[in-house]
Amino acid sequence: MDIRQLNYFIAVAEERHFGRAAKRLHMAQPPLSQQIRQLEEQLGVRLLNRTTRRVDLTTAGELLLDRGRQIVNDMETLKADVYQVGKGATGVLRVGFSGSATYGVMPQIARLAKQMLPGLSLALHGEMLTPSMEAGLRDGTLDAALLRPPVASQDIDYRVVDQEPLVLAVPSFSALAEDKPVAMHELQDQDFISYAPESVLYRITSDLCRQAGFQPRITQVVGETSTMLAFVAAGGGVAVMPSRVRAFQLDGVAYREIDNAPPVELAVAWLRGHRSALLHNFLDVVVAATAPGHDPLPKDERFSPS
């Protein structure tokens, strides 16, 4: 018994008439009758009681009709699911992202992904540093990452999707909270709160301070953006951060522009050679979400992991 014979039987059983079933199936009646006889021979039971006017189901036929409908429906659902997965329209994608992206582009990406890929489920891993995300991409625990380049591993490809200026988070009660840009040399006597030394922003902060003629006095190292801002609010020091973190409003924290500070980049990264259709579609979502007003890239212009 195959799915084709099952569909033939269901049509006859529902129509209770070979002629109407043949018309429904767009085939001649004799081949249909032959297929039903072959099915009965294969199963070794009579499925239909035939008369000149109608067809009735035997007990075995009623069971086959009931179970057969389920099988056909399951087959159609399976075909649709396989197609959706193959086209990258559904599935689970594990995405890591930096702490500051939590308050910037990640909500936009998640919102747009829900619209463009309603069958996509995002497993988000936030507050990660670039080295940790690189490790996750290499060991397969992450499928994609929103990180701060550069990356150290040659096994990872990435594309810069956003640039943003740096700002200084300061205690709102400090003299630095005055509404004007801050020059780095003004921070020589300040305590700094920073991410871990292996982070990109740690290196950027240290470079800016050295260029201004001093070594930063880093008194607190934290792993999460929210914790960093809590220390700032408590008067524990200042912190150099990407400007999108302004979306996180916390009592006791003020944000100030930094004179002549270079922009910091955000990139979407993936493991080289990862050719999942789901990943490709997610990359299109990232491009669209980080370039407001632009449509997703045409198929022939999409960037492909390779």
UniProtKB/TrEMBL annotation:
- Is the keyword Transcription in the record? yes
For this protein, the record's Gene3D superfamilies field holds:
Periplasmic binding protein-like II, Winged helix-like DNA-binding domain superfamily/Winged helix DNA-binding domain
PANTHER family given for it? HTH-TYPE TRANSCRIPTIONAL REGULATOR CYNR (PTHR30346:SF28), TRANSCRIPTIONAL DUAL REGULATOR HCAR-RELATED (PTHR30346)
Provide the species name. Pseudarthrobacter polychromogenes
Q: Any keyword Transcription?
A: yes
**Which residues are in the HTH lysR-type domain?**
1-58
Name of the protein in its database record: LysR family transcriptional regulator
Q: Give the protein family.
A: Belongs to the LysR transcriptional regulatory family.
Q: Which UniProt keywords apply?
A: DNA-binding, Transcription, Transcription regulation
